[in-house]
Design brief:
- The chain has 112 residues and is mostly beta strands.
- It has no helices and ten strands.
- The strands form two sheets. It has a six-stranded mixed β-sheet, with no helix packed on it.
- β5 and β6 form a beta hairpin.
- The N and C termini lie far apart (37 Å).
Length: 112
């Protein structure tokens, strides 16, 4: 199993980013996927999930400005975040829900 995140970077407050996660080594379409983020001074925060039926979950702090999506043909899961603020600064990880598989993460820094 391999999960590879990309798309992070430095963005100004109010900006947008689209994170990508390339998955391999398992039957992607059969699994529920999620994004979580971690700030060194805080614990892991769950951001968003997308289930094999296409239903989604968002934590309150990102709801309304974040969209999770998946492309089962490409084994990809995406997280598009808008109206970014400094509190969104974190390392973002892609994971398979219910399993201890995580990518190495991609850093998102929101700063002017």
């Amino acid at each position: 199993v391999q999960l590879v995140e990309s798309g992070g970077g430095l963005v100004q407050p109010g900006g947008s980013l689209r994170l990508s996660c390339a998955a391999s080594g398992f039957t992607f379409s059969s699994y529920n996927m999620g994004w979580a983020r971690q700030v060194p001074t805080k614990g892991l925060e769950w951001v968003s999930n997308i289930y094999d039926d296409g239903s989604t979950y968002y934590t309150d702090s990102v709801k309304g400005r974040t969209t999770i999506s998946r492309d089962d043909a490409k084994n990809m899961v995406y997280l598009e975040m808008n109206s970014l603020n400094p509190e969104d600064t974190a390392v973002y990880y892609c994971t398979i829900l219910g399993f201890e598989y995580w990518g190495k993460g991609t850093q998102v820094t929101v700063s002017s």
